[in-house]
Amino acid sequence: MSLKHMKKWLYPLLPLVVLTGCTSLSKDECLQANWYGIGYQHGVNGTQYQDGVNALAQCSEFGVRADISEYKSGYDQGLNVYCEPENGFTLAMQGMPYNGVCNSTAFRKAWQEGNDRYQVQQRLIDIDDRIEEIDRRLHTIRAELNSNQLDNQQRKNLYHERKSLEDERNDLRKERALLPLLNKLPSVEISTEW
Length: 194
Fold this sequence. Notes:
By secondary structure, the protein is mainly alpha-helical. The protein is built from nine helices and no strands. The chain is elongated, with a radius of gyration of 27 Å.
C-alpha cells in the first residue's frame, strides 16, 4: 500500500486515537464508529485483541452491535505494523513490557535486544544514583569524624561505615566500567527445549 493511499484513509481515523485510549465508548462514538479503524488503531497500539473486543461490547448498551469482522480485519492490519521488529526494539528501549500480541520470532528477538540494552541503561542510572548517595554520606561521615563530640564507639562505627561505603562504591565503579561492554555483546538465545 502506498504512503499516499495510506494517508488518504488514515487521516479520517485520527480522531479515533482519542477513542481507542478509552476503556469505554460513548453512545455517539458507538453510533459513528468505524470498526475497521478502531481495530487498526488497537492493533497499531499493541492492544490485546480481547481487550478491544470487550471495549466494543459496551456498545450493546446503546443498541449498537459492533462489526467484529471489520474490527478484526483492521486489528490484524494494525498489528502487522505494531509487530515490525524495529517497533519491538523501540518499545523495549522505552521500557515497555512485551505484551505477547506478536507471534513473530523476529519481533520478540528485537524486543529482547532492546530490553537487554534498556536494562543496562537503567542499571547505569541506578549505579550513578547510588554512587551519588554514597558520596553524600561519606561527606557527612567526614564532617562527623572531624567533630570532637564523638565517643570511641561512635567513631569506630563511623570508620566501619565509611570503609563499607568505600568498598561498595569501588564495586559499583567496577560494575559501571564493565556494563557498556554488555551493550556490545550479541544477544544470546537460550532454548530450554530438549
